[in-house]
Specification:
Elements: H1 2-23, H2 57-68, H3 75-98, H4 103-115, H5 120-123, H6 129-149, H7 156-176, H8 183-193, H9 199-223, H10 239-254, H11 259-263, H12 270-289, H13 298-315, H14 328-340, H15 345-388, E1 394-401, H16 414-417, H17 422-427, E2 435-442, H18 447-461, E3 466-471, E4 474-479
Parallel strand pairs: 1-2, 1-3
Antiparallel strand pairs: 3-4
Helix pairs in contact: 3-4, 3-6, 4-14, 4-15, 6-7, 6-8, 8-9, 8-13, 12-15, 13-14
């Protein structure tokens, strides 16, 4: 217990610094357009309903709150995301105890979950409240379920109350993000894996899960409006895409390397990739192959499969680095369970310490890159407003596409960091411009002349007050 107090004390001590660092990260890409960005519409708007590829009423409520004072964005987003990550860390420690993990195993689970680079896409995100709170309510449901199993001889009213809370939090997790429903499958599966319930009870609880799923989809269909904004990226996928997503998910979860240095060409540094691999991978290898028979034991198999079950909705639709968080708690428990059953705990401790040092470095590097991306967007917003000079309503944005590459929300294309003009609106106190026309020109010899021609056409024919010609992170010209 003493070791756990030290760990939570260290987390509490460093949290103000971590939160300060997170609050330096500025919006990029769809941080500007998703529900959790400032919303100045009615609280009782259609966003309560499934009018898009998702149904997430809590994100609408949050967007409405930050819309009351745009200066709350994105700081309040970061605060809520990080607080949820802290709560998830505590809940994981509690659940590990309910599954009879030793202090050693609980320490491994907590630190792996809290610091693993797999959490970066969510914890550094501004629009990731749905992911982190779906996980939170799923873990709450799991803790309640496990507690009910330890009180099977309690009064019938108490058990009914526990089951009611379990169902309630599963539904809340699902309304935070659709993959929250998977907890209804995972939770009894894990309980069965640790021999807390028999196979008959497992199938009974899975039938309950199927019933909840059917009810959710019926209600969702009944509430769906006639006009639905579909994100076709969720559905236009190939078999090759799925294999790449699965490989990415496995890499983010178990292979501790600096992915910025690997996949983002301007920052590519294979030496750094090699160093982080050499420092971090021995812990993973020793955990899995220090006693290979443990891999095939029931508790680990169940936890390992639960990692993929948690992320399954993302793996069959659209997967990004944010979605690695979905299976992270189960991965942490799987790693911790294997560590518990290794003979040489000193070797585990040494290798895990190296893994944590490596993870902290990777976390900081990703945070710095995310900060640089957001800063580019802010600077572009300021430049656009300064060059425009006076308030305008309708702007044509002509983007000269140079085929730049990006890496998730860490290394973002400047135009995406600009938020398609939203970064400029933010700099005017959300007052102007009020509307945009979006055009694109491919990079080439006559790119500027072509961009100016399109800009003038928009001004003449589409009632635009001016046009911003953008290339990379520069506002090349304001055309009037």
């Amino acid at each position: 217990m003493k070791g756990q107090r030290y760990i939570f004390f260290a987390i509490a001590l460093t949290s103000p610094l971590i939160l300060w660092g997170l609050c330096q990260l500025l919006p990029t890409f769809d941080d500007w357009s998703y529900y959790t960005a400032p919303y100045d519409g009615s609280f009782f708007s259609s966003r309560w309903l499934p009018i898009a590829s998702w149904w997430r009423p809590f994100d609408h409520v949050f967007g409405w709150i930050v819309g009351l004072n745009y200066r709350l964005f994105p700081t309040l987003n970061h605060v809520f995301v990080y607080v949820a990550h802290l709560l998830n860390t505590f809940l994981l420690w509690r659940i590990a105890g309910q599954l009879s993990f030793s202090q050693f195993g609980r320490n491994i689970a907590v630190l792996f979950f809290f610091l693993s680079p797999a959490m970066l896409g969510t914890v550094t995100g501004i629009d990731s409240l749905n992911q982190v709170y779906s996980h939170l309510w799923g873990l709450v449901a799991m803790s309640i379920y496990l507690k009910s199993l330890s009180q099977e001889k309690s009064k019938k009213k108490t058990l009914i109350l526990h089951h009611s809370f379990f169902i309630f939090f599963i539904l809340i997790a699902t309304l935070c993000k659709e993959n929250g429903y998977m907890w209804a499958i995972i939770i009894p599966f894990v309980a069965w894996g640790f021999q807390l319930i028999d196979r008959r009870r497992l199938w009974r609880d899975w039938m309950l899960a199927i019933t909840l799923g059917v009810i959710y989809f019926i209600v969702r269909i009944l509430l769906t409006t006639n006009q639905v904004e579909i994100n076709h990226d969720y559905f236009i996928v190939t078999f090759t895409d799925r294999l790449k997503d699965i490989a990415t998910f496995i890499g983010l979860t178990w292979i501790p390397i600096d992915y910025v240095a690997l996949v983002y060409p301007p920052e590519r540094n294979l030496i750094l990739v090699g160093i982080t691999f050499i420092i971090g991978i021995p812990f993973i290898l020793y955990t899995y192959f220090g006693n290979i028979r443990n891999i095939f034991k029931k508790p680990h198999i169940v936890l390992f499969l639960s990692v993929f079950l948690a992320a399954l909705p993302h793996l069959i639709t659209l997967f990004t680095t944010m979605h690695a968080y979905a299976g992270l708690s189960m991965a942490a428990l799987a790693i911790a369970w294997l560590c518990e059953h290794l003979k040489h705990k000193k070797i585990v401790t040494i290798l895990f310490t190296l893994y944590l040092v490596n993870a902290i470095f990777v976390d900081i590097h990703h945070g710095i890159e995310a900060w640089k991306s957001g800063l580019k967007g802010k600077q572009m917003g300021i430049e656009a407003i300064e060059k425009t000079g006076s308030p305008v309503n309708r702007v044509s944005i002509v983007f000269i596409n140079t085929n730049e590459t990006k890496y998730s929300n860490f290394c973002v294309i400047p135009y995406d960091a600009f938020g398609w003009g939203n970064a400029a609106i933010y700099e005017t106190g959300m007052k102007w411009p009020t509307d945009f026309e979006y055009r694109e020109v491919m990079e080439g010899k006559n790119e500027r002349q072509e961009a100016i021609s399109i800009a003038r056409k928009d001004i003449d024919e589409n009632n635009c007050d001016c046009a911003w010609i953008i290339k990379k992170d520069q506002i090349l010209e304001v055309v009037r």
